[in-house]
Recover the amino acids of this structure.
C-alpha cells in the first residue's frame, strides 16, 4: 500500500474506504480527502480502476485517474476471495465511511451485503453509487454519464433549436454524482454523530436521479405552468408556455 500525506482540514481523522471505480464514487472520496479525510482506495488485483485506462496520458501515466484519486492511499485487495473478504471487514471495522459503485447485487454475492458490514462496524456510513438505484426495475442495468444526462433531462435542452440534442463534452453526470455523494456522506455522518445508538447509514445515490435533482426547476415549470424547456443554443433559456386555444 502506498502512502500519501493526509490533510488537516475539518474532516481530519475521518477514515474512508473507497472501492469505487471511474469517476463519481472516486470523486466523492477525493473531495473528502481535500478536506482532510484519510481515504484508502482499494482496487481489484489485475483489473484496477478502469479510469487508469482513460486518456490523456503523460509519460505513460493517466492524468484523469491521478486527479480524481488525489490525496488517497492506495492498495489492492481481492474481494472475490474469502481471505479478501475477511481482510476487508477488518478494515471496515476501523473506518467511518465506505464508498462503492459495483452494480447492485455484486457485493451481496461476495458476502459483503449491508448486514456483515454493519456487523463489523455498526456506525458505518455506506455510499452506494449506481445509475438507477439499488432497487427497482432498472437497478441491475449498467450505464454511463451520457445515459444519465439524457434520462435526467440535460441532453434535451442542450444544443441549437433546429438540431437534435447534443451531449456536453464532459461527463457532467459523474461529477454531479461525486458532489452529491460527498454532501450525502457528510450529512449521514452528522446524523450518526448525533445519535445515541450504534446505527449507521446506507446512502442510495442514483446518478439519473442526481441529474434530475439538478434540473428540478424544469419539473416545476412543467407541473405548474405546463411549460416545456427546449434547446435555445447559447441564449438565455425562456420556458415555452403552452398556447391557449
Amino acid at each position: 500500500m502506498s502512502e500519501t500525506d493526509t490533510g488537516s482540514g475539518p474532516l481530519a481523522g475521518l477514515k474512508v474506504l473507497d472501492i469505487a471505480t471511474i469517476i463519481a464514487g472516486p470523486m466523492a472520496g477525493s473531495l473528502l480527502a481535500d478536506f482532510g479525510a484519510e481515504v484508502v482506495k482499494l482496487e481489484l488485483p489485475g483489473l484496477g480502476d478502469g479510469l487508469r485506462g482513460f486518456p490523456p496520458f503523460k509519460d505513460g501515466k493517466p492524468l484523469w485517474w491521478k486527479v480524481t484519486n488525489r490525496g488517497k492511499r492506495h492498495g489492492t485487495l481481492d474481494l472475490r476471495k474469502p481471505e479478501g473478504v475477511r481482510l476487508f471487514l477488518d478494515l471496515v471495522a476501523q473506518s467511518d465511511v465506505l464508498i462503492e459503485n459495483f452494480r447492485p447485487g455484486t457485493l451481496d454475492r461476495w458476502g459483503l451485503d449491508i448486514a456483515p458490514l454493519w456487523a463489523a462496524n455498526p456506525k458505518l456510513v455506506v455510499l452506494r453509487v449506481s445509475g438507477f438505484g439499488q432497487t427497482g426495475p432498472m437497478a441491475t442495468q449498467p450505464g454511463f454519464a451520457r445515459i444519465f444526462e439524457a434520462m435526467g433531462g440535460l441532453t434535451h435542452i442542450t444544443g441549437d433549436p433546429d438540431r437534435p440534442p447534443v451531449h456536453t463534452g464532459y461527463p457532467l453526470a459523474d461529477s454531479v454524482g461525486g458532489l452529491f455523494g460527498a454532501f450525502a456522506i457528510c450529512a449521514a455522518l452528522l446524523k450518526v454523530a448525533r445519535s445515541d445508538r450504534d446505527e449507521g447509514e446506507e446512502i442510495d445515490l442514483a446518478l439519473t436521479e442526481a441529474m434530475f435533482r439538478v434540473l428540478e426547476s424544469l419539473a416545476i415549470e412543467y407541473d405548474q405552468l405546463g411549460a416545456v424547456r427546449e434547446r435555445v443554443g447559447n441564449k438565455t433559456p425562456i420556458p415555452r408556455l403552452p398556447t391557449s386555444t
In short: The first helix runs from residue 24 to 34. The CA atoms of residues 52 and 65 lie 5 Å apart. The radius of gyration is 20 Å.
